[in-house]
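Hmm, how's this folded?
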Amino acid sequence: MKNQLERIVELKQLIVAAGYHPAQINDIVRESIGDTSLGMITHEQSCRLIETLEYYCEFAKRCQKSKL
């Protein structure tokens, strides 16, 4: 579970670096796992959140490429 939490933090940082506002990321997290804190999420919730955050990272990359 520790590795999953580290991955979530890493993905959140990548999304911020891509230009998302932290409030937007909080909304993404809330939509994915509800109001559960990251320290209390289940394995299933962490997997769903990682999948969601990876989607947003890839989306941000595609958007940045299209600007070039």
Q: What stands out?
A: The two ends are 38 Å apart (CA to CA). The chain has one domain: 2-67.
